[in-house]
Amino acid sequence: MSTAVHKDFHGAMSYGLTFLQRQYGDREMEDYLRQVGRVVYSPLSRALRERGLVALEEHWRRIFTLEGGDFDLRYEGEALVLEVRRCPAIHHMRQRGYHVADRYCEHTRLVNDEICRAAGYQASVQYDQAAGRCIQRFWRP
């Protein structure tokens, strides 16, 4: 597996989300993101189903370490909590002058929902896009 990080992907995705929302509306944009969660992240859903929350913990630790995010991963009872204090995607886009889609952080909620749903888990995201922070929670109902 390559460890190369191409942060400009976030800028491209932001422009793509803006296009989808303007051209087709919120619902189509959301449907697209849910499909990404189901299809692109199906291996992660499978790992979550088979190995439990440790699979998500390993995934997020690897991603946020590679991207240089300021984050914390911890367990609160039976829930895995990912606290992002400095989102590497938001920071990179702002630093490079990319447009940040109005609903950029919604992709996190929608994709996480689909990853978790396929594995019998649930997810929540509380985000502050302006501050580039969020708290994501994952648990088995």
Structure description:
By secondary structure, this protein is of the alpha+beta class. It has one domain (8-139): 2-Layer Sandwich (Muramoyl-pentapeptide Carboxypeptidase, domain 2), CATH 3.30.1380.20. It has helices spanning 8-24, 26-39, 42-51, 53-67, 88-96, 106-119; strands spanning 70-76, 79-86, 122-128, 133-139. Strands 1-2-4-3 form a 4-stranded antiparallel sheet. Strand 3 (122-128) and strand 4 (133-139) form a beta hairpin. It is globular. The termini are far apart.
- Shape annotation: globular
CATH superfamily: Trafficking protein particle complex subunit 3
Poorly predicted ranges (pLDDT <50, ≥5 residues)?
none
Describe the main β-sheet briefly: 4 strands, antiparallel
Count up the helices: 6
CATH class: Alpha Beta
What is Rg?
Answer: 15 Å
Provide the domain count. Answer: 1
Order of the strands making up the biggest sheet: 1-2-4-3
Percentage of residues assigned to helices: 55-70%
